[in-house]
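re the bet — no i am not wrong, look at it urself. input seq straight from the record:
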Amino acid sequence: MSSKERKKENPNLGRTPKYVLFQRFAKLFFGCLAAVTSGMMYAVYLSTYHERKFWFSSRQELEREITFQGDSAIYYSFYKDLLKAPSFERGVYDLTHNNKTVSLKTINAVQQMTLYPELIASVLYQASGSEEVIEPVYFYIGIVFGLQGIYVTALFITSWVMSGTWLAGMLTVAWFIINRTDTTRIDYSIPSRENWALPYFACQVAALTGYLKNNINSSAESFCYLLVSAATYTFMMMWEYSHYLLFVQAVCLFLLDSLTLVQTEKVHEVYKIYLFSLFLGYLLQFENPALLVSPLLSLVAALMLSKCLEMNMKKGTFISRLLKIMHFYLVFTVTVTLNFLLKMFVPHKENEHLLKFLEVKFGLNTTKNFTMNWLLCQESLQAPSQDFFLRLTQSSVLPFYILVLIICLFSVTQVIFKRISGEPLRETVTLEDGKIGERPEIVYHIIHTLLLGSLAMILEGMKYLWTPYVCMLAAFGVCSPELWMTLFKWLRLKAVHPILLALILSMAVPTIIGFSLWKEFFPRIMTELSELQEFYDPDTVELMMWIKRQAPVAAVFAGSPQLMGVIKLCTGWMVTSLPLYNDDDLLKRNENIYQIYSKRSAEDIYKILTSYKASYLIIEDSICNEVGPVRGCRIKDLLDIANGHMVCDENESYTYSKYGRFCHEIKMNHSPYVNYFTRVYWNRSYFVYRINTVISFQS
C-alpha cells in the first residue's frame, strides 16, 4: 500500500507529529509558567512577611538599619559606603584599602568579606537609575528576595526534569515554603552570603541534572553545559565556603563515574569547569590562597591525573576490577598528598580555625580556648535537635523522602552489581524497565543527598543545604511513574497492570499530599502574613542617636562584635572588632574585647582597650547579666574557663578570682574603675564609658 493510500485510509496519520509537538510545547510552556510563577510568588511572600515582621515602610532609616544584626550589618554598611562614594571606582578602592572600619587595621574588605554581591547591587542600583524610584535598602533586600525566588524556581525545574512532570515542582515548592524554618536563613539574616550564593548553586544543580541525562539532545546538552559553567563560577564568587560544597559535589561525580553509571566524558567536562572557575576566581579574588589550598582543586587534579594513568580501566576483566580498587586508592592518596604539599608551599591563614574546631568537635582534642568553645556552643554547629526531625515529619516530607531514598538505593545497588558483572550501560531506560537506578542524574542526587545529609546530622547549620534537596527528592519520587514502576517490578504485581497503576499513583499520591498540605498549612501561612508583628528596640535607637550627636568624629568604640557591626552601619564610626569569624586577627580581637565581661582588673582591661586605640567602651546589660539556657555557654562562663577562673567539681562549677566581674564592678563607680573610665551615657540596656587618656590614681 502506498503512502497516499495509507494517508487516505487514515487521515490522522500525518497529523500525529503535529499533535505530539503541540503537546510537548504546551507541557513546556505551562511548566515554565508554573516554575516562574512559583518563584515570583515566593519572592512576594518573603517581602510581605518581612514588612509585617519589621513594619519596614513605617520606620525611619535608623530603625530599619537596626534590623540588620551581626554580620548582616557589616555587609549592608559597605553597600551604603559604595553608594556614598563619588564614583564606583573610588568606592571599590576604599573597600580594598579600608582603614576606616577597624582601628589600627587596613583590610581588603572585598576579599575578606566576599563583598561581590554588594558591588553588583550598587552597580545595578546606580546604573538602572533607581535612585529616584526606590530607596537603597528596598533595592538591596529586593534583590535578595528575587534570588530566593530563583532558588525556588531552580528546585522546581530540577524536580520537574527528574520526574517528567511539573506537578513534582509544585510539590517541591510547597514543601520548601512549609519547612522554611529549616530550608533557608532568610528570616534571620537577609544579607548573609549563602542567601546570595545558594540560588546560583541551585541553578547549577538543575543544569547539571539535565546535563547528566542520557537521552538529552545536543542543543539542550550545550545549553546545560553553559549554564553549569556560569552558575559554578558565580556561586564561587558569592560565598567564601562555596568550594567546600563544590568539593562534595565533585565527590558525588567521582563516585558516579567510578561505578560506571554515567558517561565519563561528561564528568570530566564538569571537572574542567571546576578548574576554570577556581583559576578565574583566584585571579579576581585578589589571588585568594584559600582557593589554591582547597580540597576541590586537589581532588580534581588527582582525578585528571588518574584519568591519564588509568586509560584501560573499564574493560570488564579481572585486571580492570583490580585497577578500579586501586583507582580509589590512587585518587585518595594523590588528593591528600597534593593538598598537603599546597598547604606547605602556599602561604595561607584562611579557615585554620575551622580545622581546630573540627578536632575539638570530634573529640580529637580538648581546649579552653574562648573562640573554639564559643563556636562549639553555637546552635548551628551542634547536632540537630529532635524538633528538626519532628517538623519535617509533621509536614510529611521526611517519611516520603525516606521511602524514595530506600527504593532508589535498592535500585542503584542492583545496577552496581550488574555493572560489576560486566553488563554495559544502557543509553535509554523506559518506563516498562522499572530500573530507576540506571538513570545517572537520579544516582547523582541520591549520592548528593546522602553526603549532605551526613553533614547535616553532625552540624545543624548544614540543614539549610540538605533540607531543600530533601523536599526536591521526595517530590520527585512520589510524582515519578518510574519509581512506582521500580517498586511494582519488585512486588511482581499481576492483578493490575503495573504501568497503569504507576501512572495513576504518580498523579494521585501528590494530589492527595497537596490537598492535605493546603488544608493544614495554608491557613497558617495566611495568618502569618496577616498578623502584624513588632520589632522595636528603643534602647539601641537611643544609643545610636547619642553616638551621632555626642561622640567625636575620631572616636573608636569597643564592645561586643555584634553591637560593633550595628554601630558601624548606623553611625559610620570606627570600631575595634567585627562579627566576622574567618580572620585570626579579628577572632583574637573579639576574644580580647570580650574580656570586659570577665573577672579581670580594671588595669588589665584598660591596657587591652588602649592597645586598640579605643576611646569609648559599651557594656551590654544582656551579656553582663546573661542567664543562658545552657550553663557553660554564656560569654562570661567561656571567659572564666579560658582565663582559668572556673573549676568543675562533681558536676558543679565554681568561679574564683581576686577581682570581681568587670562589667559589674565598673557600674559601682568606685576606685580604681573611675580612674580609668568615666560614664558618659546609659539607658536600660547599655552603659557607655569614656576611656580616660589622663589617669588619676586616687583611692
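see?? The chain has a mean pLDDT of 87. told u. also Strands lie at 556-558, 574-575, 616-620, 646-649, 652-655, 677-682, 686-691. so pay up
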